[in-house]
Amino acid sequence: QVQLVESGGGLVQAGGSLTLSCAASGSIFNIDTMGWFRQAPGKQRDLVALITSGGRINYADSVKARVTISRDNTKNLMYLQMNSLEPEDTAVYYCYAHSRVVPYDYWGQGTQVTVSS
Q: Could you give the 3-state DSSP secondary structure of residue 89?
């Protein structure tokens, strides 16, 4: 089993910045890809960014110019730095980890990000 705990969410004004953190614990040696997803009220959960254990990164087109995902495998931490935040970025942000063994997908409990205009 893998446990994921997010932190760093909060209320920020438009144009501001936030850095989210995700701490992984448990059977982390089975984790390959990690990432961030977000879900706004009434909408589906969407990809924000993914990062493999080897450092390959994918960003959603809607955020790629404004966010940076990073991962510290020595500390079992993952980060999402978000700049130039917009009200449309308001959502619950979820940490995600993909394991090589079942159950393959793990999710954190989510952290709320609210961007005021």
A: helix
Per-residue pLDDT at 102: 82
d(C-alpha 114, C-alpha 70), whole Å: 22
Q: Give the pLDDT of residue 103.
A: 83
What is the share, in percent, of the chain residues with pLDDT greater than 70?
100
- Whether the Cβ atoms of residue 56 and residue 65 lie closer than 8 Å to each other: no
**Nearest to 6, CA basis, from 43, 48, 36, 39:** 36
Cα angle 60, 33, 76 (rounded to 5 degrees) comes to 115
Cα 103 from Cα 83, distance rounded (Å): 33
Cα–Cα distance for residue pair 17/3, rounded to 1 Å: 26
